[in-house]
Amino acid sequence: MEQRRLMLAFAHPDDESHLAGSTIAKYAAEGAEVVVVITTRGEAGEIAPGVDATPENLGEVREAELRASVKVAGASLEMLNYRDSGMAGTPENNDPRAFVQAPEQQVVGELAELMRKHRPQVVVTFDENGGYGHPDHIFISKTTSIAFRESGNPEYSSPGGLKPWSPLKLYYMAFPRSRIKRFFEEYRKMKPDNDITNADPETFGVPDDMFTTQLKVAKYVPVRREAASKHRSQGSPFDVFPESMHEDIFSVDHLILIDPTPAPGTAETDLFEGI
Ligand SMILES: [Zn+2]
């Protein structure tokens, strides 16, 4: 069988481990080449108490955390050189270096170039709403989807001039809404006084019946946790949960096959199914 290669494209350091840490660890452990693409250094993130970082050097700190995290999961890393655009409606959206300010065609070119370089059969990114509406997540979903189609187009020239490569499958990855609701419930029990679970769970994740692909990843939950723990400056809302609950909540990863269009009733258990 041909060497399997998987590319996952997200926006911020820690997106990869919180959303896809187990999937990355699984395919890396099974011998696939896994490359993670991250487009910003998460400069608009928070700084957890006790972490030696300032708003000025947070990008550098987070890049180092990301490198450590990706290494734990067994993947390689490619970074684009944009700035974290911050949450929707914040002044950081308007910074000229912000990811969302970049010309769409420029980002598509950079992503297509990376696809031509790494030649993944399978590409994964956020769903169209970026999990919960973060503008950078929405933008990487859109640009990755366009790059997925352009990468194999002989008429399309990417900035480094590499030869066309057609990835075979595009997936959107998200949390099922039922899991978000469960997380909110459990979180409220652990921390009744919090501002996370005041949000409307219907605005997070994707309805359960949209997923085409479920990966059994219970075995990789400890690696996922270790990879996520490298993002020390951010802390994690999942940290309040005991180990057993991590295994319970994260035992399955969920994805939606976007391209090729799945037949009705598609229920895959492997991203490389059919390849
Ligand atoms: Zn993010």
Task: Outline the secondary-structure elements.
Elements (H helix, E strand, L loop, with lengths): L4 E6 L4 H15 L3 E8 L17 H16 L2 E7 L21 H15 L3 E5 L3 H4 L1 H16 L18 E5 L3 H14 L22 E4 L4 H9 L13 H7 L2 E8 L16
Parallel strand pairs: 1-2, 1-4, 2-3, 4-5
Antiparallel strand pairs: 5-7, 6-7
Helix pairs in contact: 1-2, 1-7, 2-7, 3-5
CATH structural fold name: Rossmann fold
Within CATH, the superfamily carries the name: LmbE-like
Oligomer type: single chain
**Mean pLDDT across residues:** 94
Explain how this protein is built:
The chain is an alpha/beta fold. The protein has a single domain, classed as LmbE-like (Rossmann fold, 3-Layer(aba) Sandwich), CATH 3.40.50. The protein has helices spanning 15-29, 58-73, 104-118, 130-133, 135-150, 177-190, 221-229, 243-249, and strands at 5-10, 33-40, 76-82, 122-126, 169-173, 213-216, 252-259. Strands 3-2-1-4-5-7-6 form a seven-stranded mixed β-sheet, sandwiched between helices. Helix 1 links the parallel strand 1 (5-10) and strand 2 (33-40). Helix 1 (15-29) packs across helix 7 (221-229). The mean pLDDT is 94. The site of zinc ion has 5 residues, from loops.
Short structural summary:
This protein is an alpha/beta fold and 275 residues long. It is built from eight helices and seven strands; from the N terminus they run βαβαβαβααβαβααβ. 35% of the residues lie in helices and 16% in strands.
